Sequence to fold (76 residues):
Amino acid sequence: MKKIIIPIGALLIAGLAHAQLSPTENYVYSKTYLDYNASNQPTKTAETVEYFDGLGRPKQIINIKASPLRRDVVTH
Fold:
């Protein structure tokens, strides 16, 4: 039984550790298409998540995969 519970628990925790949108915080998710290929499919996108405090002031901005190494850029 322990052999089954440990991998399932690890998968659930790994899912929580992934950069996700918070269901308890106010946020705006925006996706901007920057370039299209010949068949009209988007090739480059810019994704941004902006979190707000309880009064509507910006608290944190996350630009998803915006660095040259394809990592998230976080601005407090």
User: Anything to note?
Assistant: Residues 2-17 form the longest helix (16 residues). The chain has a mean pLDDT of 80. The beta strands are 26-36, 42-52, 58-64, 73-75. The first strand starts at residue 26 and ends at 36.
